[in-house]
Amino acid sequence: MLTPPYPVHPEPMKKNWLERNPLWKIPLGCLTLFVLLAAFVIILMTVITSSFRHSDVYKQAIAQATANPQVRERIGEPIKPDWLISGELNVSGRSGKANLVIPISGPRGQGRIHAVAQKSGGVWRFTYLQVDFADQSASIDLLSIQPPEPRDF
């Protein structure tokens, strides 16, 4: 008698781990959704933050803060902008509005640049540009005209 090319009584299919533990489907599904949502939020925040960082008004505000001797003395050098920028930035061609809060830090402390500006004719003009410090002491107005330091001739 010939034997068939396949077993007469096939072995039962082995179930994978998830089929053997069906109660884990809900927590694993929730964890997957949470990871996907977190990845979406991180990507969204990265895109928004990078658009702020590449704007002219952001670069000008950072440049004025780092050029100010009072800010350099207070925070120390080098002054570095921190990651999470908040506010709004609306640009439409050669016009726009900006209201940004830019966290900065240095070796001696931390602060925030609060910048309010309008863009007209392709040029940003600040209406408010001030640095507030983390220790809640007096803030520095970057738009005020500072008298030159006395020189010895």
What does this protein structure show overall?
With 153 residues, this protein is α+β, with helices and mostly antiparallel strands. The chain has helices at 17-20, 25-53, 56-67, 69-75; strands at residues 80-81, 86-92, 95-106, 109-120, 123-133, 140-141. The chain has 2 domains: 19-49; 56-141. The chain is built from 4 helices and 6 strands, in the order ααααββββββ. Strands 1, 2, 3, 4, 5 and 6 form a 6-stranded antiparallel sheet that branches. The longest helix has 29 residues, at 25-53. The model has no long low-confidence stretch (mean pLDDT 88).
In short:
With 153 residues, the chain is of the alpha+beta class.
Radius of gyration: 29 Å
Helix content: 25-40%
Beta-strand proportion? 25-35%
Number of domains: 2
Number of strand segments: 6
Number of helices: 4
Task: Note the topology.
Elements: H1 17-20, H2 25-53, H3 56-67, H4 69-75, E1 80-81, E2 86-92, E3 95-106, E4 109-120, E5 123-133, E6 140-141
Antiparallel strand pairs: 1-3, 2-3, 3-4, 4-5, 5-6
Descriptors for this entry?
single chain; 153 residues; alpha+beta; 2 domains; 6-stranded antiparallel sheet; 4 helices; 6 strands; elongated
